[in-house]
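G., before I forget:
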Amino acid sequence: MPELRKDPVTGRWVIIATDRARLPGDFVRQPVVEKPGRFCPFCSGNELKTPPEVLAYRDKGAANEPGWTLRVIPNKFPALRVEGHITRQGEGLYDRMTGIGAHEVVIETPSHTISMSGLPEKHIENVFWAFRDRINDLKRDSRLRYIVVFKNHGELAGSSIEHSHSQLIALPVVPKQVIEEMDGARRYFDFKERCIYCDIAHQESESMARVVIETEHFMAMAPYAPRYPFETWIVPHRHESHFENSTPEEMQNLAWVMRSLLRRMDKTLERPAFNFMLHTAPVQEGALQHYHWHIEVMPRLTKVAGFEWGTGFYINPTPPEEAARFLREAGLT
Amino acid sequence: MPELRKDPVTGRWVIIATDRARLPGDFVRQPVVEKPGRFCPFCSGNELKTPPEVLAYRDKGAANEPGWTLRVIPNKFPALRVEGHITRQGEGLYDRMTGIGAHEVVIETPSHTISMSGLPEKHIENVFWAFRDRINDLKRDSRLRYIVVFKNHGELAGSSIEHSHSQLIALPVVPKQVIEEMDGARRYFDFKERCIYCDIAHQESESMARVVIETEHFMAMAPYAPRYPFETWIVPHRHESHFENSTPEEMQNLAWVMRSLLRRMDKTLERPAFNFMLHTAPVQEGALQHYHWHIEVMPRLTKVAGFEWGTGFYINPTPPEEAARFLREAGLT
């Protein structure tokens, strides 16, 4: 019997097709493979082919020279720009504003052919430090209300550049789905006087049915009402609304968990394309009792069709308990 | 300068990348082509390979025999089933319910190789009549609160079967995005005492900048804040919240408009994959002053990436004024 499950934060219903569960072998696998050879502006040595860096972690060399292990640059074709003023304007019944913002690329490694799951733990940690450093810098511009941090890996996940990278987009508005998530968490807090994510982590840790990895500081788990097969959330144990306030111990542990999760996905799902997105509180807000930052990771195994587009109502052919079991038992650390 | 535009109904902000507009030739085209030859259960003569039909329009022949021009069958692998009772149950802090509902397939033509844009007008009209007939039948089951009607055309749009078809999914809950659209329309009505879609149609008809086709009964237009390049909405002139209450004249005219729009897309975008979805009021509600049914058509030209997934915030590289101009000038009737 198929089941309808409700995401406790957003209230989104999802159909979980329990009676014809699709397991890893049932998906058409399209492993992400690296094709070296073509010119790549993200490779070490090609620094002058990109806009000047806004941040780099380097062992040697001057700015915009080789010697870096991680480099952050403005997107060459930014969706939004920092220059100018925010002007809101009407157009009959419509509303528009100037596209103030920032769009940056985190080049995660100088090497063209290593994907994130293949990076040493310390390098993955650097990626998270770079997110922190750029968030802290960008949020000084009080016009910027939200910073979306995400990664597209593989063509199926919308990435047009193979070289391992992630992105930040700073926006003058808080996106609708972020507001909805925050509102949902606030409603729960108003009712229970507890953070819903803390409660989720607690319940999951007790049942273990959907837990993939649990460490001192984090839980990687399949959510109760996942939109996609093998969707996995990384949730910190310590209550904190803003990712950028993570401790050094947490950053280190997060890198370990992310690496372990991606390697488990690589093994179970044959190097799938994936997206991850950081869910964190709006940068101009103070500490929030009701919200709890986390990362949502989504392997891209199925095409999203008309039904999902139009309704925000998803059919997921893999129960999260099955997905978690496969990833948990992937036999990797 | 990129522009942020707000969808007036849902409040969703979209980045319109005006300064590097992508025009039809800039997209990697992947025309949908028919590959005849394989066995297809939707073809005439194979009626016994599908579940028994729940509706058919036929010139001759008995039920589940050849002679039909359109046939509606239950999905062989339904996401939801009609049998059973709705049971809502908690699981710690989570909520679930049994997957009561229906999932049906409208086989739009007995021919395997004709896609919707190639069907005669009268056959497209029959597709809309089939939607109406099935909605009217399904809504007699008062447990069913919403009926999602949609079409996926081409693999990129999530279709695994080539034979031209659309689908209905009847749900025991109203999907979140439908509620949001209804709520947005209600807020406008509370403020203005007018239907927002009527106002939109009126404003678009005056400016003509985003109009693709205007007929006696309908307007096909690029919305002001489209999520996707060449996204087009078909909006009836007459205020009506429920699609199933359309008049015969409207149904006939809708078929003409849909055919013309799909043919314009085929010509401009080289037979793209597309989705369309019917946006209509929940079936158990009476006539609503604030809501206005319409159809949203989305060619699938770009891959949706991590940014869009996580935020509901879209970057659209084609301004709707450009998209509308290309479709308007496609030189077809």
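The CA atoms of residues 154 and 273 of chain B lie 5 Å apart. The helical segments of chain B are 121-138, 176-192, 196-207, 248-269, 306-311, 320-328.

More on Monday.
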